[in-house]
Design goal:
The protein is mainly α. Helices cover about 80% and strands about 0% of the residues.
Amino acid sequence: MTFTKPLYLKIGICSALHLMVDGLCLCCLYLLAPSLSAQRLVGIFLTYNMLAFLSQPITGVWADRMKQRHWMLLFSVMLLALAVLTTALTASKEISAIGMPIVAVLQGMGNSLFHVWGGKQVAVGTGNDIRSLGFFVATGAIGLSIGYVFFSWLLLCIFVIAISLLSVFYITIDTESVGITNRPSTKRYEVSTSVICLIILALMMAVMLRSLVSETFTMNLTKCNAVVLLIGGASMLGKMAGGWVAYRLGIINSLAGVILLAHVCYLCRNQSLTMVLVGLFAVNCTMPITLYLANAVLSDKEGLAFGLLAAALIPGYLLSTL
């Protein structure tokens, strides 16, 4: 399809929001971390991650049914703003007893709403263009790294103000142009319900495996700030490049190439940081491919497709920690 300037702008805004939403969530959690015991910190992080990822199939169904999806973005921004306010109150000890779990819940739900909204908007607006999907999902990785390395009250304020302004700007240009709210022609695959379920299950298993492999790549690294940023950068570039590689070479050829590269790097991961970063790059090249296939199979249900694949990340993460 032919991309117009407004459509490029909307994809860029969605991607920038993705970076800042993930960065804001991690920034809040790490600002509260010094006042938490190790056991309670683990509990807060698990609460956030469970809500942020495992709730996405539910919020994804809501996104598919909503005609005015702008409300989902506004609800997300409102929840994230409340999380920032609660973080400030908790840090000042005014509601410290109950504030920390409230922050995790508000962030988790705000994060969940944003991700399915953004995934749906980009998929619908671009006709499930694999390059655009890769660009949108990529920025979250570097956002997490930035939130972890540079967390501060100043950064948190910048994030929440920028998210609010960009969201208003996005809604304004979206209501003034045709762009992303109309559905371009999308390649669809007509198959039976049982086949669809099997394909989605296979894609979820692939996502779980990717999450497990990604975590094991970095498990033995000493994660200083520079390494964290390099990991985030390699993951981001992999997701971006994966969409373009698949667009140019085809899905089968791309998967064969990146899986072979990832396998070689995995075997040599203990030899150098370079092998780890290249391996992470290769593994993350598969992300836009799995999302593209899920959207193609679940036509008109891109929110559910995004949510199911996001939920599949958690089992892989938990397995890697064990």
